[in-house]
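Exercise 7b. Backbone tokens:
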């Protein structure tokens, strides 16, 4: 292992409160496309429609067709990658407090992370737009066999995914708890995010302003590389397991 990763590991070991901030990159490594995949089926659907709130309200069946044909089957077969598993192991070892994620796929929880702040919500839970009753995505998939959009068993209201659509604000409580973590941490580990989507990208900035050590692991350059203490250009699934190994061999 190179000196940079050894340095990251020893800084993590010496820190009191480590928080991870993850983005699409960590899930892209295990086959979850961001908005544009190479997969033909995925490209059949336009993110400006299925991910946009005004379009969703106008024509919800577009989203639900996308959900039925693309998103649901993909999520049912997707498994956490080495990057997700490494972060869960860091938590289990006592080196990581919380994961703040921009992803909506639930893979951190699948990997075993217990403290996850989902900035953009989750695609695994649906809510009734009438009475707010919650449904699992499996329930929604079943109800979709009867009607599109799927309807609430309680009040016949339309269901929607608990995600933040384009054109919607982030949930204020979720955002507040993410900022609280950012203020509390003395080490922030950014993984697989290019840090260009706001307000999410303001969270690592906040941590930096509060004096946290900032390490960025991403395949490409990010908007905060110039402010980071350490930048590692690599895949989460290759880099994070090395850090975990080093944490275990103290
Ligand atoms: Zn309802």
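Sequence design result:
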């Amino acid at each position: 292992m190179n000196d940079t990763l050894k340095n990251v590991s020893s800084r993590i070991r010496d820190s009191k409160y480590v928080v991870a901030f993850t983005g699409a990159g960590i899930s892209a490594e295990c086959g979850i496309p961001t908005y544009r995949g190479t997969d033909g089926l995925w490209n059949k659907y336009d993110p400006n429609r299925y991910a946009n709130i005004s379009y969703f309200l106008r024509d919800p069946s577009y989203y639900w067709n996308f959900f039925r044909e693309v998103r649901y089957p993909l999520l049912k077969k997707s498994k956490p990658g080495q990057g997700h598993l490494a972060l869960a192991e860091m938590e289990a070892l006592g080196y990581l407090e919380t994961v703040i994620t921009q992803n909506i796929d639930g893979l951190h929880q699948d990997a075993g992370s217990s403290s996850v702040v989902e900035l953009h919500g989750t695609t695994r839970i649906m809510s009734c737009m009438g009475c707010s009753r919650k449904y699992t995505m499996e329930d929604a998939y079943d109800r979709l066999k009867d009607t599109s959009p799927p309807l609430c068993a309680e009040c016949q209201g339309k269901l929607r995914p608990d995600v933040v659509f384009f054109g919607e604000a982030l949930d204020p409580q979720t955002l507040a708890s993410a900022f609280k973590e950012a203020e509390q941490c003395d080490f922030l580990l950014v993984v697989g995010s290019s840090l260009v989507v706001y307000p999410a990208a303001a969270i690592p900035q906040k941590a930096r302003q509060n004096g946290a050590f900032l390490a960025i692991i991403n395949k490409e350059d990010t908007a905060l590389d110039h402010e980071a203490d350490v930048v590692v250009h690599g895949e989460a699934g290759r880099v994070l397991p090395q850090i975990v190994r080093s944490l275990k061999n103290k």
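Instructor comment: Residues 49 and 79 are 27 Å apart (CA to CA). DSSP finds twelve helices and nine strands in the chain.
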